[in-house]
Amino acid sequence: MFSSLELQELATPTGGQFQVATLQEAQDFCVRIARTHYENFPVGSLLVPKHLQPHVYSVYAFARIADDIADEHDCTPEERLRALDMVERLLTGSEKTAGNPVFAALAHTIHTCGIPYTPLQRLLEAFRMDSTFTAPRTMEDVLFYCERSANPVGELVLRIFGLWNDERRAYSDAVCTALQLANFWQDIALDRAKGRLFIPATWLERHHLKAEHLLKKEPLHEREDRERACLEACVQELCQFTMNLFTDGAKLLPLLPSLRLRAEIALTIAGGTQILRRTAALGNNILVTRPALGTKDGLSIARHWVGLMAASFWRRNSARTHSTTP
Predict the structure, then answer these.
(1) How far is CA 69 from CA 10, 79, 127, 178, in A?
(2) In the chain, where are the structural domains located?
(3) Model's pTM, two decimal places?
(4) Which of 17, 57, 92, 228 is most enclosed, with most CB atoms within 10 A?
């Protein structure tokens, strides 16, 4: 985790104290960022071919630094937005870099993999939204955010592998949106402590709930039975909506010729799905508890992964058979 001063330096052309002289030093810096931050999904794991790992790390480092800037509590929203504007200038080259490790590594990735600025700029849009939080009114508001915070990640990964196209886009977006939503629902207790709720107001209203009541600090056992039952029903519906996206997104797997990437995304789907199951099992306790995965969950994830991989092989072989049948 970087301090406020360090984040400010990483949003400058030189990178301040982190300035590097070579591409290798820049890429090593990005690796350190990825390996010292916890995520719900594997970053640059062994399933990613070695020659592509530096590109995954550089994109992750860019997103991590920009996200941390958007969440920097020692700065005002205006200061965070100004810093994100500088990050965008460094990204597009309108502000020349001179040794900033993140942008030196990212520039190499953009050039080598032919990545446009658009998905990276959409990530910055999401981080700007983070710096000035507005509670979502509808699920469409939440999905609008996911289109900027999550879906570009899938696009970037597929572009790094040279596999981005319109057919894969819809399924990639479904996987990424599902991961973002699963993260929202598992973090309800953490966000509630910050005075935030990502459950759309229209969904709360449908379940006879009010955001201001859920945000109250009173203990769960002191809440009315009716409110607890309504919240549990709401959580179940949110999780089912998200599970449907994971199911749809799994159709991406047989479309991937890269076995390693298929295995990586199948593992990500299996892990996200298990987190979702744990979230649903908590019911109304999600207000005060964050779901955690244990040893048994690891076995469930492994079984799910095997099932996803087997289904992807069957569908690819079936598609080949149909394409060669006269």
Answers:
(1) 10, 9, 8, 24
(2) 1-132, 136-320
(3) 0.90
(4) 57
